[in-house]
# Entry
Amino acid sequence: MKSENQSNDMIDSAENRNRVIIRTSVIGILANIMLVIFKAAVGLLSHSIAIILDAVNNLSDALSSVITIVGAKLANKLPDKKHPLGYGRIEYLSAMIVSAIVLYAGITSLVESVKKIIHPEEADYGWVTLVILAAAIVVKLVLGRYVKAQGKKVNSGSLIASGSDALFDAILSASVLACAILYLTTGLALEAYVGVVISAMIIKSGIEMMVDTLNDILGQRSDPELSRRIKQLVCEEEGVRGAYDLNLLGMNVTVPYKSAVIPFLRDIDPSAEKIGAVNTLVRVDGGYKGYNTDCSGIGSALNANGVCFPADQTYGRNGLIRTDTVVMIGAGGAAKAACYMCGEKGVRKLIILNRSVEHAARLAETVQKDFPSMAVSSMPLSKAPEIRENGFLAIQCTKAGLTPKVNETPVADRAFFQKAAAVYDVIYNPEETLFLRLARQEGTPGWCGLDMLLQQGISAFKLWTGIKPGEEQVEKVREHLWTTLY
# Structure
């Protein structure tokens, strides 16, 4: 089962990355074609083999950008029956092709430069030539830095390789310019010899790009500095004498992959299968088993803040916020986990509010089937002020109020907050969303999602290690999260 909201997030993220790659590549193509035209004309007029080779190199860069666009388009194809893991690794192949083009350009330049040494030809440089070469250097430097930065931003090996290639082209053009100035001032012709040196640098760059891509394909050890920092943090704990190796026991999964990862699991916990989303993977023989600790995490977080439900042993105690009615705002993955928490906690009445009435009704129907003793209904979000119940717990599970959109709230009606016994917002950044602030202004207690983040992490840690952290350790982690986030 895949949440529609999660699927849309995943597609939007992939499409945005694809747009960045294509836009950057198109800019590279246009810039390189412009440089090819000017350099080829100047090279032919001045009889300079170095400038002509520089133009050929720019032409190879334009071809590299075309390959990057094709690779990005193919890599963005959705998984199918023949390729269930998708087509993302095509980007590795496109990066390899770009590396091969760089190598070819370097080898070709080397061959032509050696020929020029053996059979020298007098060049005819002019000041116009120098100006065009200088402008080409500036264009290549700006283009190289821009393309490489965009590649790192979207984690595209092809763009990073193309950006590195453009920066080396700037060095190549700079050497040609230096040779031209030297020839005009002293009559000394060194362009062929400098061409040999630059060709060697280009070949070296191509080999390094190819090796880096091969390492990504084959896999490599984690960064030594990262490993050292992790071991240092582990050793700071009381009772830990040393950390000697890092072993992957599992991992956390976040949006938009909580549902998308399910087809690739070896096994899945029954409650996670019902919810249709996993956020914790535990390594087992032959792969990973998926769990959903969001469900238990939100329940534990609410209990920790004094909220109790009919199934809790503390339900009869005084001084606690007791509720058997929950108003759920949202119908995505987080809301579904919270709905199942309500069912497991013995909630008697659950009202699901959502902008899309169809999504709310579909979630209500699913939850009702799994918890027939709980009265589940759905309403459009705009009807929130019409809720007649008093003393309910409102759980906010949408993205409204999430940084940077801190001025958004799904509900702003004062009467709604006056009727609520308490509110909970799964968002933890910022610490006080507009939703929480409006509730507190009406005297209604409310909490952010920091404790849910912490509690689901505690559950995940126990699944990975079989150890439940002590209260002192939990508080230490909570203080660290608080100081880090706020």
The mean pLDDT is 84. The CA atoms of residues 355 and 426 lie 18 Å apart. The first helix runs from residue 4 to 46.
